[in-house]
Amino acid sequence: GGGGGHLRAGRAGAARSGGRGGGGGRRGRAAGSRGRPGGARGGGQEERLPHGVRAGVGLRCHAGPRRGDGGRLRRRAPLRRRARAPARPPPRPRRARARRRRAPPALPPLRRLRRPRRRRGVSNYCRERLHVVLSKELRRPPSDLGEMSDVDMKEHWDDLFTRCFQTVDDEVSGLASRLVHGQPRSDPIAAENVGSTAVAVVVCSSHVVVANCGDSRIVLSRGKEPVALSIDQKPDRKDERARIEAAGGKVIQWNGHRVSGILAMSRSIGDRYLKPYIIPKPEVTIVPRAKDDDCLILASDGLWDVVSNEEACKVARRQIQQWHKNNSVTTSSSDGGDGSTDPAAQAAADYLTRLALKKGSQDNITVIVVDLKPRRKPKNNS
């Protein structure tokens, strides 16, 4: 009979089918197998494969055409190896993927998110308390201010504002008691590393008195020209640096000049962890009033970092005039002291705040505008 349908290639070389009538009807084996005709071991003769047989060393092969019943030839489809796809990492669990999608966005820089919140408690307390303490100090003048000389008046206002700012600083630090719902309390307002700047102004009939503690600023618009009534108290000022070093402190250059490498201002209310280098004593300035005085602008460095004094005064004047032009309401000046809000000045302050935000201010912004004109009447376009 014929040889077997499947052949295996031996280690010696190419495979071949068994001879006719040889091997007792057994399947063909590799060349050089025992008991097969024509299968001499390493005989040196070229091994011949039957027609249609494909073979290879160490590979399993098939006979091509195969005789079946009736003498017909049947072809067997060759084996095809499928290419394996590269291994993929197992999918993440649904819970993990859901948590990844719900992750909060990146926080803004630490400095841009923490400072307004860190100083909010002290700044709010100064807003509610500073003018109350100042009013109490103003009710007990030592003598008639009209009889004082300029030097005596300067000393009087220096002492008055110094006592006022020191009282508020003691209450913030817990060194002095305060009334809360009628009950005395002496605990600190905030932590020892919390503080705030403060600027105050007293508008008299003949003078404007300004007190500044920190890097906030007050600017007077006079005759379409800006007049700075305060100087920013920074550690890089020669007089401030000398005072800090005389008290045993250091001014370190770290993203700007800072007291002990931390605080970028040399005076503030609070910040008791940097005392005695940081003091609450304000700098007082007295300026006589003039007829061409338009308005005062009190603002924190969030405005002055991006808006110049000239631009701020120009915008404030324009907004006040525009409000009176669009509204037929006559508003009195802030000299009355009734505590009412001037809508024209409020519109100017709101516009300056939006302008600072539009210019990309990275600091907290506080703006107050004081209209110094006694009365403004809308112009008659007719």
From TrEMBL:
Ranges of residues in domain PPM-type phosphatase: 101-372
Top EC category: hydrolase
A GO molecular-function annotation: protein serine/threonine phosphatase activity
Xref: PROSITE patterns: PPM_2
Region (Disordered): 1-121, 326-345
Enzyme Commission code(s) on record: 3.1.3.16
InterPro entries linked to this entry: PP2C, PPM-type-like_dom_sf, PPM-type_phosphatase-like_dom
Biased composition (Gly residues): 16-25
UniProt keywords, alphabetically: Hydrolase, Protein phosphatase
Comp. bias regions, Basic residues: 73-103, 111-121
Catalyzed reaction equations: O-phospho-L-threonyl-[protein] + H2O = L-threonyl-[protein] + phosphate; O-phospho-L-seryl-[protein] + H2O = L-seryl-[protein] + phosphate
UniProt name for this protein: protein-serine/threonine phosphatase
Origin organism lineage: Eukaryota, Viridiplantae, Streptophyta, Embryophyta, Tracheophyta
